[in-house]
Design brief:
single chain, about 500 residues, mainly beta, Neuraminidase, Cytochrome Bc1 Complex, Chain D, domain 2, 4-stranded antiparallel beta sheet, 7 helices, 27 strands, globular, binds heme C, iron, metal ion binding, heme
């Protein structure tokens, strides 16, 4: 009797292909590679296996050549509740036998919640020899956290602010920070603050941390109510929380950033998407996504593909996939062969309508296929930009060259917009943008020689967005409608 499955190639164990998705040219197949899990929070790759955590305290491994899932460790002292629990995991790089495996989880010390970083050694399908590397404050919420090893096995830990607004701006504490240490938990001599783990500060609650092939480090961070962030992490930079959230766009934020150096995010979302796992995609296997950051989200239940510029310093554009299709997603991993793995988080404390499915939680694999499927998913058309965000972007493109990002203008050349007469007077403001201003003008006793061009080439909606942004950021905050512009245009 012939036995087809007996001859299977190691990598082609039977997986259930559940969907296809079309990119510009390529088709990807989406397959379930593991199911019935309990919030697979962190994933890491080692030796044709995915090692992953479950929030309830299990470290498991998925053998990519057989599809077998087995348990490596039950963390004895994990404390789980809503968001605390066993969080992230990383494996030492470049070591084939018995590498270190580092995990982060919340535990209890008497009545106090703590957040522990513990190193184990991988041996024969189990984890042995736990060594405590570092312990920081934990809390019922905002524990972060993500772990990352760079190519030299330097360990980075993105810690949460434990919902305490005094942490992020205190460079002497270890919460609301990116911490950097050796794989033995020691402070490296080249850390930016001597004898301190602190590498960067001013963070709220990060659940994404990744590094590109040039050594740029990126994080994703949950904002409070209005702005989620992607940050490019540089040593000793201060990212502003809690005084600054997201872009520097309110008068208070602009004022703070003027007096002390604060680093802006390279991308932000209003309304919030609840960003979680983040992975750099540098492979050529899926050419449309080469040089992107892949972000999975909880609230918006989607995969977001953030295309980077040539220098990997800015996000150029965002694409959204799978909105609400697989529910909340917590973790994303790119393996050396260019496959992408996503984990769902539908059995966590906050499942969305329609979830969890009986098979949740799942680990899904995305892989390019040469077949042309009959049915497939496409990029989601979503209103990714709020009006507020759009107004700010238009202001940056069309106005900031003269009036400057902080609205203060250039003394004697371009007038300030802060409390300006024609910012307060909506009709005059609309007229100015529709008609421009020709002829010399004296404003508040200062003579301006130059004219201001008309912006009537922008549509009603765009002009209203700019005006509303300027009024919010620099003026009385009063808002106008698209219709108001339309009426004045006639
Ligand atoms: C090339 C430079 C330049 C650009 C770009 C520019 N402006 Fe101006 N703007 C000026 C100058 C010069 C004046 C003052 C002279 C005048 O009013 O004729 C002015 C005046 C203003 C005033 C009046 C201030 C007051 O005190 O009454 C407002 C409001 C204003 N600009 C808003 C904008 C907005 C919004 C944009 C973008 C859509 C913009 N400007 C783009 C140069 C510029």
């Amino acid at each position: 009797m012939s036995c087809q499955s007996c001859n299977r190639q190691p990598h082609d164990y039977v997986t259930e292909v559940i969907d296809h998705v079309k990119l510009d040219d390529s088709f990807l197949e989406i397959a379930t590679v593991a199911d019935s899990l309990q919030v697979p929070w962190g994933m890491t790759f080692f030796d044709d296996k995915i090692l992953f955590t479950e929030i309830i305290g299990n470290v498991k491994q998925l053998d990519l050549s057989t599809g077998q899932v087995s348990t490596l460790l039950r963390v004895p002292d994990v404390f789980t509740r809503t968001t605390p629990g066993l969080l992230d995991i990383v494996v030492q790089k470049g070591v084939k036998d018995n590498p270190y495996v580092i995990i982060n989880y919340t535990a209890k010390e008497n009545d106090r919640i703590i957040s522990k970083l513990v190193r184990y050694t991988y041996q024969k399908d189990t984890l042995i020899n736990p060594v405590d590397l570092l312990t920081v404050k934990g809390a019922k919420g905002h524990n972060g956290a993500r772990l990352m090893l760079d190519s030299k096995n330097m360990l980075y830990w993105a810690t949460g602010d434990v919902a305490d607004n005094t942490e992020a701006q205190d460079s002497t504490t270890l919460n609301g920070k990116i911490l950097r240490m050796t794989i033995n938990g020691e402070i490296p001599p080249d850390n930016p603050i001597p004898n301190s783990f602190v590498y960067a500060w001013g963070f709220r609650n990060m659940q994404g941390l990744t590094i590109d092939d040039r050594g740029n480090i990126f994080t994703s961070e949950h904002g409070d109510a209005i702005e989620d962030e992607i940050n490019l992490i540089k040593p000793l930079n201060n990212y502003g929380w809690p005084a600054i959230e997201g872009m520097h766009d309110t008068p208070d934020e602009i004022e703070i950033a003027k007096h002390s150096s604060r680093t802006k995010p390279i991308w932000s979302w209003t309304p919030v998407v609840a960003p979680a796992g983040l992975a750099y995609y540098g492979e050529s296997d899926i050419p449309e996504w080469k040089n992107t950051l892949l972000l999975v989200t909880l609230k918006s239940q989607s995969l977001r593909v953030l295309h980077l510029d040539d220098k990997n310093q800015q996000v150029k554009r965002e694409q959204v996939y799978f909105s609400k299709k697989y529910g909340r997603m917590r973790s994303v991993l790119v393996t050396p062969n260019g496959d992408i793995y996503l984990s769902t988080s539908n059995r966590d404390w906050n499942p969305q309508p329609g979830f969890p499915l009986p098979t949740d939680d799942r680990i899904l694999r995305l892989r390019k296929t040469t077949e042309t499927p009959d049915n497939y998913l496409k990029e989601d058309v979503v209103e990714t930009e709020s009006k507020e965000h759009k107004g700010k972007q238009l202001y940056t493109s069309f106005c900031a060259s003269c009036h400057k990002e902080d609205g203060l203008g250039v003394k004697g050349t371009f007038p300030p917009l802060k409390n300006a007469a024609r910012v307060e007077d909506s009709n005059a403001f609309i007229d100015l943008l529709l008609n421009g201003s020709k002829g010399r003008d004296t404003i508040n006793g200062v003579f301006y020689e130059q004219d201001m061009a008309s912006f009537s080439f922008l549509n009603d909606e765009e002009l209203a967005a700019i005006i509303n942004y300027v009024k919010t950021a620099f003026g009385d905050g009063e808002q106008i409608s698209d219709d108001h512009v339309k009426k004045k245009r006639k």
